[in-house]
Amino acid sequence: MNIFYLESEYIPLIGLLKAVRIASSGGEAQMLVEQGLVTLNGKPENRKRAKLRDGDIVNCNGIEIEIKAK
Questions:
Q1: How far is residue 29's CA from residue 51's CA, in Å, rounded to a whole number?
Q2: Integer Cα distance of 20 and 63 in angstroms
Q3: What are 10-69's pLDDT values in tens digits?
């Protein structure tokens, strides 16, 4: 599992996908979400700008990322 440390209170879902290089652009990140390839805490997530906070777990294309406060 990968860990992403927050710089602020939260990060939008598409921002996370770009930050960890799962997506190379915002458009690609949005496409992954729209295609149903992203889960948040084990459930399908279709909100592109879902606010990810400490303790959330995102999975996309078999890559799991845990969000942690710095």
A1: 15
A2: 10
A3: 999 999 999 999 999 999 999 999 999 999 999 999 999 999 999 999 999 999 999 999
Work out how many domains the chain is built from and give that number.
1
Range of the domain at 43: 2-69
Distances (CA, A) of 59 to 20, 55, 64: 12, 13, 4
Provide the residue type at 45 as one letter.
E
27 class by beta-carbon count within 10 Å (0-12 exposed, 13-18 middle, 19+ buried): exposed
- What's the DSSP call for residue 2? E
Q: How many other C-beta atoms can be found within 10 angstroms of the C-beta atom of residue 21?
A: 8
Here the CATH number for the domain that contains residue 53 is 3.10.290.10
Q: In sequence order, which ranges of 2-69 are alpha helices (DSSP H)?
A: 13-19, 26-34
